[in-house]
Design a protein that fits this description.
78% of the residues lie in helices and 0% in strands. The protein is mainly alpha-helical and 159 residues long.
């Protein structure tokens, strides 16, 4: 890459625009995967919780909680990846529009033309608390509260 980043950007503008299109596609896929995981997780939770009501078994409510928690971790991972791809997209948009900051120049040299690779400076496990604060995870919080309520409140006796 030339030492003058502006010249390099001007020469490779078509390539950079294609990279932004590919990033948009990756972001859309991550968002869609997140939605599908939520749908499947809620379906599995409802089936196991319903079976727990039928059999009046607290163990099934615990199983429903664990299954939904595992789906939740997978969904949090998709949200984490989506945010990483959005960061790359925002950097690339800033670069294409001419608002380059020094961190962008370092980033360009670090990725060596592969703008689709998420930045691995922050690890997934370290980002879980920030990701949990997202409104996208509200269905999980509500479902967890319902499950805990089902475990605490005694089940009605069957007639």
């Amino acid at each position: 890459m030339p030492t003058n980043v502006s010249d390099w950007i001007e020469k490779n503008q078509d390539y950079l625009i294609k990279q932004t299109e590919m990033l948009q596609s990756a972001i859309a896929r991550m968002a869609n995967n997140s939605l599908e995981i939520k749908k499947v997780g809620l379906t599995v939770w409802a089936a196991i919780a319903g079976f727990g009501f039928t059999n009046q078994s607290a163990a099934l409510f615990v199983l429903a909680f664990v299954a939904f928690a595992l789906f939740g971790v997978l969904d949090i991972y998709y949200l984490y990846l989506e945010r990483k791809f959005r960061d790359n997209f925002n950097r690339l948009a800033r670069i294409l529009s001419g608002y380059i900051v020094p961190e962008d120049q370092e980033w360009i040299e670090k990725v060596k033309g592969n703008f689709l690779k998420p930045d691995n400076s922050t690890k997934f496990l370290g980002q879980i608390p920030n990701t949990l604060k997202s409104w996208a995870n509200l269905p999980y919080l509500i479902t967890f509260l319902i499950t805990i309520l089902l475990l605490v409140v005694p089940l009605p006796a069957s007639p």
